[in-house]
């Protein structure tokens, strides 16, 4: 059903693009059609539409952001990063873009840059749970124990029902050989998300020590 919705929207946007429109209206129509292609898992078509929109307005932040996400989907990570950086120069308050930039740096194991990006995502959206968790991971790779715990604690404070937050902190404590704390957190994660086998595995690895 959802695919039909997006296919219908694409037809409408395509029809609109055949009519004379102001550049701004045309750019937004292309961007919206690109979003529909992304929803239909057609990232190449989405990239083409976002690129056409950017030819009309090179500093079109929305199109830069969305094209970056589409580049991620086609594993063109360097092109995605270039779009993220361009968008952030135009608007430094794009929390989701900061988050994806952080994930890029995590992939390349530049954990200092990753942590900076995740903290910028948090600055833009102070209750960005996933950004706190990723900032904690980055801090753990940087051997910053206090920074990692502070990030995981903040994530749990934002959502005390987050299995991901308890699981992340529990694995961190396990790696730090603080096994009692690890066991408590991983047990809580299992209780919150009993179908997530990874938490059970992590706890089992702890108990086997």
Explain this structure.
The protein is mainly alpha-helical. The longest helix has 17 residues, at about 25-40. Helix 3 (about 45-55) runs antiparallel to helix 4. It has helices at about 1-15, 25-40, 45-55, 60-75, 75-90, 95-105, 110-125, 130-140, 145-160, 165-175, 180-190, 195-205. About 80% of the residues lie in helices and about 0% in strands. The chain contains twelve helices and no strands. It has a domain at about 1-90: Serine Threonine Protein Phosphatase 5, Tetratricopeptide repeat (Alpha Horseshoe), CATH 1.25.40.
Number of strands: 0
CATH superfamily descriptor of one domain: Tetratricopeptide repeat domain
Distance between the termini: 50 Å
* Rg for CA atoms: 21 Å
Question: In one word, what is the shape?
Answer: elongated
CATH level-1 class of one domain: Mainly Alpha
* Count of helix runs: 12
Short note summarizing the structure:
The chain is mainly alpha-helical and 209 residues long. The chain has a domain at 1-91: Serine Threonine Protein Phosphatase 5, Tetratricopeptide repeat (Alpha Horseshoe), CATH 1.25.40.10. Helix content is 79%, strand content 0%.
Keyphrases for this structure?
single chain; 12 helices; 209 residues
List the helices and strands and how they pair.
Elements (H helix, E strand, L loop, with lengths): L1 H16 L5 H17 L3 H14 L4 H13 L3 H14 L4 H13 L3 H14 L4 H13 L3 H14 L4 H13 L3 H14 L4 H11 L2
Helix pairs in contact: 1-2, 2-3, 2-4, 3-4, 4-5, 5-6, 6-7, 6-8, 7-8, 8-9, 8-10, 9-10, 10-11, 11-12
């Amino acid at each position: 059903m959802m695919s039909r919705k997006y296919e219908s929207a694409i037809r409408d946007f395509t029809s609109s693009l055949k009519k004379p429109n102001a550049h701004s209206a045309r750019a937004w129509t292309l961007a919206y059609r690109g979003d529909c292609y992304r929803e239909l898992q057609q990232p190449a078509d989405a990239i083409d539409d976002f690129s056409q929109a950017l030819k009309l307005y090179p500093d079109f932040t929305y199109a830069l952001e969305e094209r970056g996400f589409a580049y991620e989907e086609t594993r063109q990570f360097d092109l995605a990063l270039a779009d993220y950086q361009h968008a952030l120069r135009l608007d430094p308050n794009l929390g989701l873009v900061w988050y994806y930039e952080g994930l890029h740096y995590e992939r390349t194991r530049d954990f200092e840059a990753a942590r900076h990006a995740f903290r910028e995502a948090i600055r833009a959206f102070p209750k960005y749970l996933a950004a706190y968790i990723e900032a904690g991971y980055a801090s753990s790779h940087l051997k910053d124990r206090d920074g990692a715990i502070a990030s995981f604690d903040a994530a749990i404070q934002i959502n005390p029902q987050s299995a991901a937050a308890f699981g992340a902190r529990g694995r961190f404590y396990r790696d730090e050989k603080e096994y009692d704390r690890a066991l408590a957190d991983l047990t809580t994660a299992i209780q919150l998300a009993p179908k997530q086998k990874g938490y059970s595995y992590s706890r089992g690895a702890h108990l086997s020590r």
